[in-house]
Design goal:
The protein is mainly α. Helix content is 84%, strand content 0%. It is elongated and about 60 Å long.
Amino acid sequence: MQFSSKHLLPLFSLLFLVFMISACSESAPAESVSDQSVVELEEEVMYIHDDVMPRMSNIMKHKEKINELLSDSTWHTSNPEYVTNLRTTLDKLNEAEKAMWDWMHNYSDVYGQLQTDQQKSDFLNQEKEKISEVRVLMLESIEQAEVELSKNPI
């Protein structure tokens, strides 16, 4: 069987088209996996944030209560150790609150400027670690405040 050039051109065109479709369909999943991992990372980061963010109200309540206790100096001389503990606790609450605000500002300022999935993935991995540290700081400061406020000698 002989093929004329008139028959070979459509055959090669068809083979080329099949090859291109095959090549394109193989590379598409790689991009979607990358997109998917970025989406998953972002969800993990935001899950940690969303889990701990409502506890900012606890921090605010505890700060208010401690400031109220510290503003009443009538009992300070009889309980200097408690005053010191309250001040240390207040510092820790302030540090936790500032850490959350700083994290949120940095996250929103930087994330929107990233272009590639690799940049986003690297950033999100770093932010996941940072927000996890913020979470620990917040929970520890809240626990410390609750312990100190339960000791209220007044």
